[in-house]
Design brief:
single chain, 172 residues, alpha+beta, YojJ-like (1, 6 helices
Length: 172
Amino acid sequence: MKKEIRNKIFDILTEISESQSHSGLLVVFSDLNNVLAKGALPIGIRQKNFKDFNETVHIRDENAKRLLKKVGVDGAVLIDDKGFIYSPSVYLNINVLGVDENQIEPEFAARHIAALATSSSTKATVYTLSEETGKVREFIKGKIKRRYPDENQEKVLEIIQKDIQTARIKVE
């Protein structure tokens, strides 16, 4: 069940990244007791104005993507072990001492560092959607396990596009 939920979260973030307008997101799935014990704080103002969370929303629900898009940039979205959105906007209290510096990429900002630190210090799977690049990453145990678009796919597409360009030039 957890793998199915992890895949659904990744798929939703991928769909959001492909839309014309997206903001950055940080999503924490599973091990919420440990995440909350480290000092995660709800963002009070956003929490009160988030009317859609008066009812329980599961990540498989049709409106889950719309709700994640609505959350926007501020804070993390917490999703419990069963796939229910626990809280839409939470500040994470992170400790970067356990983060493997080799996992930090040049384009990383605070959201990505928080994902690395949270996944390093808990059993949570953490996802980021980059506001600037639209890239989606999945962090498990302080390492990037999955990304979209996949860099290998990007390289293959780039080579194919160059080959097509070369073929067009030769034909003309």
